Amino acid sequence: MVRSNRREAGRRRLAMRLPQMRTLIMESRDPWLLELFEAYQMAVEARDLVRGQPVNAKLVREYDETCFEIEQHVIRAMDQPSYVQISK
Question: What is the pTM of this model?
Answer without folding.
Answer: 0.84
